[in-house]
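User: Second chain of the day. Same drill as before.
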Amino acid sequence: MTLEELAASLGFSSFPPLFAVALAVALVVGLIIFVPVLLRVIEIADYAYSNSRIQVMSSRIIREDKLKEMIEASSLAEVVAALETTEYSPYLREMMEERSESIERALNRHTADAYREVATMVPMNLKKILTVLIRKWDVYNIKLILRGVYAERSPDDIRADLVQVGELDPQKIGELAEARSLEEAISNLDGTPYSRLAESLQIFDQTRNLTVLEAKLDNILYEDAWKNATSQPVDENLLALKNYLATNIDVVNLKFVFRAKKDGLAAGSIENYIVKGGGLQESFIKSTLEVDTVDNVVASLEGTKYYQPVIGAVPEYESTGSILPIELALDGYLARFGKDISITQPFGIGPAIGYLSLKEMEVRNVRTLARGIEAGLSPDEIRNLIMKVGS
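Assistant: Same format as last time:
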């Protein structure tokens, strides 16, 4: 049968109309196939420039060999000298004295600026989440103030340790530092996202344990971030950021559980401090609050992705009685998780997540070694406190 005869059998008077229909069908099929590919190419192109910038930023992360040299330093002056060759150098120039707290302020100021820079490179829906996370420096400052007020430090001493970054107005931070009681400090938070901290004063009065106040601040911060992440349509990049945020929330919750068990806090009075969201079910986290020892909390994690990192830290916990090794193991897992996202999703938000997680690890390690040197710890003791992505 010829094309003309086929056309006639289908009701067309001649071949050209059939050809036009076939061409139209081919175009439609082509569009169905090509448009998603084109959109994916555009999405990758949107991240191409920002990811090249992030790659440059990642290359400035302090290398392991340099970190090893810093651990061997005999004084904070040597640590500062080593940092002068890094991107922290401009921030160190504002140091008035060589104290670990001064170094920590410089580290935090740079990291906050890094968060802001990365936030300018990502789409608006992801920018909102990163902007909320910049508030972690507000939380950091409020925790410092609460500890200072509780320890009856002078306002000048408290102010000397604050990091002037975050979203709160510096004047508000100044008012908080002037408070002479925890109640006064918390009342000064009225009109801010942290005014809900007042809800925790009753349980604090019962326990006299700052853990409950600090946990409430983490609760406010991460639940606001999670609300932003879950209130918009999910795409591949938002899903990656949500997974990273969920792991952050899990780590915050587990660290709170371990501290609560170490401090002997009753489960019923603190279960509302668990951050909602995350990868672990809220009911599971609350059930871990019901167990009676740190060892049993570790056992309850069997079957989750956090069991192997934590179980490896148990021997050091048992020998020292400190939960710091467990917290380091959880923080190390979070850093590895962020790095893995950068590898599995290299053309989207992955490199930004990987960079931010490595930056957090870097700051934690430099802060730890500075405090260790100031406290007179040996290099071996400091090495045991360093967080490792590769472990």
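The mean pLDDT is 84.

User: Great, on to the next one.
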